[in-house]
Amino acid sequence: MGLVLVALAGLVLLLIVGGVVLAIAKRSGATSPSREGPSPSHEGPAPTQKSPEVIFFLRFEGQDDEAYVRELASRHAHIGGASQAREAALDLVRAAPTATHAYCGPASAAPHGPGVAHSGLPGGLIVGFVARGRRPLDTADGRDLAAVVAELRKVSGWVDGDFAGAELRLAQASVDAPAPALSAVRKETRPGHQLCRYCDHAFLAHDTRCPNCGARAER
Ligand SMILES: [Zn+2]
User: What is the distance in A from the centroid of ligand 1 to the CA of 41?
Assistant: First the structure.
């Protein structure tokens, strides 16, 4: 009888120890970034929840793009109503296809607003745009530029009743800025682009051959 009790106690102890070991293994697995795959983002997947206030960051590189974005930012320095918010959003839609990095998430993630961006990349220019809606707005994964542009397009279609506020600024970027990190845009998600099925090179949608490997584009 005593032997059975000892055996039972041993079994219970084994189960407890096993459970603790499993729990620890699970935890370390969840925090390990190696499980996320070869994602260029350091923050994991971007949030895609709804928010009454959404902030966009778009980063551009190259003289022409930077000059265009500088001019765009000065033109939209004051947004006082739905029509000005529409124009600002539409100009960002026009500029967006050449963005290198993007973010589209709840504005609460960027307590210092559109003027402060989190990026450690040298050079380039980042524009921030915050849109406050009367109804909750959608957010998008910054790696998917087409999805970010789709959200900007929603703002570019605002009527007076949708508008609760908007602000557009050139953003100061720093690697430890209190703002969400921008994600590298997947090139094939740029509006007007397609991805080569043979070599993974992103190229213009109207090209019939991949400029990298020469494969015929398939429609
Ligand atoms: Zn190719």
Answer: 25
Q: Is residue 24 part of a domain?
A: no
Among 103, 172, 197, 200, which residue's Cα sits nearest to residue 142? 103
Q: 219 CA to middle of ligand 1, Å? A: 14
Provide the token pair at 143: 């790696």
Query: Does residue 16 belong to any structural domain of this protein?
Result: no
CA of 188 to the centre of ligand 1 (A): 12
Q: 181 and 215 share a domain?
A: no
The verdict on residue 9 lying in a domain is no
Which among 183, 58, 188, 75 has a CA at the least distance from the CA of 124? 58
**Does a structural domain hold residue 21?**
no
pTM for this model (two decimals): 0.72
Residue 195 CA to ligand 1 centre (angstroms): 8
Parent domain of 202: 192-219
* Residues in the chain, total: 219
Number of other CB atoms surrounding residue 23 within 10 Å: 10
**Computed from CA positions of residues 23, 25, 28, 34, in that sequence, does the dihedral angle turn out positive or negative?**
negative
Q: For each successive 10 residues of the chain (219 residues), what is the average pLDDT?
A: 56 52 46 40 57 96 93 97 97 94 95 94 95 94 95 96 97 91 91 88 89 87
